[in-house]
């Protein structure tokens, strides 16, 4: 009877243990999967909903890849900072195995001095070096500063966004307001939708007119031709100020995310920039990828105690539970930084192709004009080219592309149609007043 009860309890305990173990690992893998694959797709709607509930304004003056840099990555780093800080300041971040003659006060002193000084790692199978300079070469000098470095990384990821928002306001085009109203239009009733579209069209027309050059001379016309067709000159009056600033910010994002891999390599040491490849190699070969010299759980600590007239030196073995979290955090960060850097480079190349070459800008605008049945004849097609190059110019097309990335192509088509009607009416007035169509009047 007792044997059967013992067997039953043993199986019950084993089943409970296995279920907890499997649930923990499944939750970890599911969280990683959601982080890497579903965050870029769903985070916009989640953050937007939270912002609406908390009456916090979420800006829409950039694209998804930019928000992955300055919003999602910054949020992830701040969460990691809170986790590591809580583990350091709540509980014991380090526990050392002290000699038997140590009292409680001695043990507390040992834990504190080994935490603020740098411990060093020697494999259990290796002999501890006798020379102290050899021990110093194996020191771990990062674990006390992990929260500070994570906050610094978060600031560096948000810095390009601050630069973008400071500079784009000087273009004369309120990008955030235009994109926000256009994005809200797709969720409004038909009456409010029409009103919002008309507002965006009038606002963009005023902003584009505000960028026009009021002076007329041969040199000014030549500079505008070079900026419109070859993108050789940049400035507010050339209609490409926003694009130039945005490209600069894109370069800052790429430089930051790649530079942070080398920053962490310098901070953590031991070739962190190839850490992820080594983990993948260990997983493929079936090795234990957690057995890393970068984040050892068991380290050694040397310290001296002055007992007059002698100076006693001790070597103790310490456990660093914080490295259990650091290892998972930094392996996730390696894959995340590589992922974001690849997407940032792709986004920058895509914007270069879409904005530098006049043919791609013209095709983009003509696509929406065809959808709205605004062009059909050859004169209309030629006028559409001038509408894109002379009226919208780089900044106008750039704003339309941002609207498309934050709302839908239908909204962009309606805005392009409204701007086209305004442009044609202006052309008709010029023809009636001058008696003929003059080249370059809209520059």
UniProtKB/TrEMBL annotation:
Gene giving rise to this polypeptide: inx
InterPro entries found in the cross-reference section: Innexin (IPR000990)
Transmembrane segments: 71-90, 142-167, 241-263, 329-357
Subcellular location field: Cell membrane
Membrane-related topology note: Multi-pass membrane protein
Keyword Cell membrane: yes
Family label: Belongs to the pannexin family.
Gene Ontology CC: one annotated term: gap junction
GO biological process: monoatomic ion transmembrane transport
Protein name: Innexin
Alphabetized PANTHER family for the sequence: INNEXIN, INNEXIN-5
Entry keyword set: Cell membrane, Ion channel, Ion transport, Membrane, Transmembrane, Transmembrane helix, Transport
Function, in words: Structural component of the gap junctions.
Main location: membrane
């Amino acid at each position: 009877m007792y044997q059967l009860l013992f067997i039953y309890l043993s199986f019950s305990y084993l089943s409970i243990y296995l279920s907890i173990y499997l649930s923990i690992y499944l939750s970890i893998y599911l969280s990683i999967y959601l982080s890497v694959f579903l965050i870029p797709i769903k985070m916009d709607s989640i953050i937007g909903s939270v912002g609406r509930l908390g009456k916090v304004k979420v800006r829409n003056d950039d694209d998804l890849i930019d928000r992955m840099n300055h919003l999602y990555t910054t949020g992830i780093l701040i969460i990691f900072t809170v986790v590591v800080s809580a583990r350091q300041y709540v509980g014991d971040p380090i526990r050392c195995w002290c000699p038997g003659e140590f009292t409680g006060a001695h043990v507390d002193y040992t834990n504190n001095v080994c935490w603020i000084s740098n411990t060093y790692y020697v494999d259990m199978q290796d002999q501890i070096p006798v020379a102290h300079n050899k021990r110093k070469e194996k020191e771990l000098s990062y674990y006390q500063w992990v929260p500070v470095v994570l906050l610094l990384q978060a600031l560096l990821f948000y810095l390009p966004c601050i630069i973008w928002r400071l500079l784009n306001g000087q273009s004369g085009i309120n990008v955030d307001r235009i994109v926000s109203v256009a994005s809200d239009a797709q969720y409004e009733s038909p009456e409010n939708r029409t009103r919002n579209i008309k507002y965006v069209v009038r606002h963009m027309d005023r902003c584009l007119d505000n960028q026009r050059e009021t002076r007329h001379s041969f040199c000014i016309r030549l500079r505008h031709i070079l900026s419109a067709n070859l993108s050789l000159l940049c400035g507010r009056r050339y209609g490409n100020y926003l694009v130039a600033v945005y490209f600069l910010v894109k370069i800052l994002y790429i430089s930051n995310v790649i530079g942070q891999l080398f920053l962490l390599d310098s901070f953590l040491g031991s070739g962190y920039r190839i850490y992820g490849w080594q983990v993948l190699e260990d997983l493929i070969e079936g090795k234990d990828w957690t057995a890393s010299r970068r984040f050892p759980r068991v380290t050694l600590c040397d310290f001296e105690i002055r007992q007059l007239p002698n100076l006693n030196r001790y070597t103790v073995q310490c456990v660093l539970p914080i490295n259990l979290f650091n290892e998972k955090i930094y392996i996730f960060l390696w894959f995340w930084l590589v992922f974001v850097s690849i997407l940032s480079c792709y986004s920058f190349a895509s914007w270069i192709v879409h904005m530098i070459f006049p043919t791609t800008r013209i095709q983009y605008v003509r696509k929406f004009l065809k959808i709205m049945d605004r062009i059909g004849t050859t004169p209309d097609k030629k006028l559409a080219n001038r509408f894109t190059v002379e009226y919208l110019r780089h900044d106008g097309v750039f704003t339309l592309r941002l609207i498309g990335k934050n709302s839908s192509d239908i909204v962009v088509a309606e805005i392009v149609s409204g701007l086209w009607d305004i442009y044609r009416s202006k052309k008709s007035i010029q023809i009636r007043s001058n008696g003929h169509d003059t080249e370059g009047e809209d520059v």
